[in-house]
Amino acid sequence: MAGEEINEDYPVEIHEYLSTFENSIGAVDEMLKTMMSVSRNELLQKLDPLEQAKVDLVSAYTLNSMFWVYLATQGVNPKEHPVKQELERIRVYMNRVKEITDKKKAAKLDRGAASRFVKNALWEPKPKNASKVANKGKSKN
């Protein structure tokens, strides 16, 4: 950014922030071009329902976030606009999808293996008759 020309239409202090913002907008533009290169139906057909939900939620959240930024640039306080409730609603659904994903990743309990593990780990006293039988067998040999 050292080679960039600084515009005098805005304070010098915010030049770095504006440059970062411009780079971020460029990155968003590249991602949108990539997503728009494939039709939505083609994209969704390749995904399972949970992944489809993730794509839909991320798309909705991104659009609403961009609208939030637009409102801020127009001098409207987005915190007092219905877009805030919409973002919160989408965030709730994103958390639900995350919970479902986490449940799928969670380890399943194998009851048979757990039962064998506990049974073998517990100490069992030997019957009194078994020790006498073992001793008699040793004395005969």
From TrEMBL:
Record GO terms (molecular function): DNA binding; nuclear receptor binding; RNA binding; transcription corepressor activity
Cited InterPro entries: Exosome-assoc_fac/DNA_repair (IPR011082), Sas10/Utp3/C1D (IPR007146)
Record's keyword terms, sorted: Cytoplasm, DNA-binding, Nucleus, RNA-binding, rRNA processing
GO cellular component term of the entry, any: nucleolus
Pfam families found in the cross-reference section: Sas10_Utp3
Annotated localization: Cytoplasm; Nucleus, Nucleolus
Lineage of the species this protein comes from: Eukaryota, Metazoa, Chordata, Craniata, Vertebrata
Main location: cytoplasm
Complexes and interactors: Monomer and homodimer.
Keyword Membrane found: no
GO BP terms, alphabetized: maturation of 5.8S rRNA
Metal-binding is among the record's keywords: no
Entry coiled-coil feature ranges: none
Superkingdom of source: Eukaryota
Function description: Plays a role in the recruitment of the exosome to pre-rRNA to mediate the 3'-5' end processing of the 5.8S rRNA.
Protein name: Nuclear nucleic acid-binding protein C1D
Recorded family membership: Belongs to the C1D family.
